[in-house]
Amino acid sequence: MITEDLTVEETVGDKNDGIDNVEHNSSDISGEDADTESDEPQYKEYSDDYLTSALEAILFSLGESVSVDRLAAALEMEKKKLVKQLETVVFNYNNNDRGIKIIDLDGSLQLCTRNEYYGVLAKIVNTPKKLSLTDVVLETLSIIAYKQPITRPEIEAIRGVSCVHAINKLIEYNLVQEVGRLDAPGRPIMFGTTEEFLRCFGVSSTSDLPVISPDKIEDFKKEALEEADFTLSVDTTSED
Question: Among the CATH numbers 3.90.76.10, 1.10.10.10, 3.40.50.960, 3.40.640.10, which is that of 48-125?
């Protein structure tokens, strides 16, 4: 009887060992599956309310425009789904009674003050309501905006007079910047508009600018020539 008991126990033990081996093998298999699954990106999803709050916090904290790529990375979201959800989130955000709104700057988002409250804000921060652009500076800016990237000689060929002062003013106002050099003798600097330009004029990209007619370019030339003639006449009078 004792021998039989021992035999039974040994047999049971052998069976248990087999079960343990199966369990180990199962865990190994599941571990391999887990490793395979972990190689795939694990994207997150959020409710519109949470995404709205997160977006507001990010844009407010940074105080600058943030690309969708950066937002997707921070939120660990698939870019395609984020872009689609942002359409709803931004629309709803901008249609509530807030003093700020989210604007799209050529694929990047930024918080900014609503135009109707800018007068009050200007009094608080004690700054002028808007930049004071003379006709000369504004015309130069228009040419750069529609013809960019463009060099100074090309701008002057359109206006017919020197644009050095106007370009320097636009750079000072952060409306225009150097965007490269033309592959030509002397490698002249090429100019283009900035993100600040888009903000100031309330457009998402330069493609949203109204179409300008060729006649308007001719008007720029005519006004520039009249301006040059007036300057020369004043100089002559002062010499007399």
Answer: 1.10.10.10
Q: Which two tokens stand for residue 150?
A: 């463009």
Each residue of 109-145: pLDDT tens digit? 999 888 888 788 777 776 555 567 888 899 999 999 9
Q: Are strands 150-151 and 100-105 parallel, antiparallel or unpaired?
A: unpaired
* Cα–Cα distances in angstroms (integers) from residue 122 to residues 62, 83, 117, 226, in the given order: 21, 33, 9, 36
Taking the C-alpha atoms of residue 202 and residue 88, their distance in angstroms, rounded to an integer, is: 20
Rounded to whole angstroms, the Cα distance separating 100 from 168 reads 31
Long-range contacts of 224-232 (CB under 8 A, 24+ apart): 224/136, 224/139, 224/159, 224/160, 224/161, 225/160, 225/161, 227/136, 227/161, 228/160, 228/161
Query: Check: CATH 1.10.10.10 for 135-239?
Result: yes
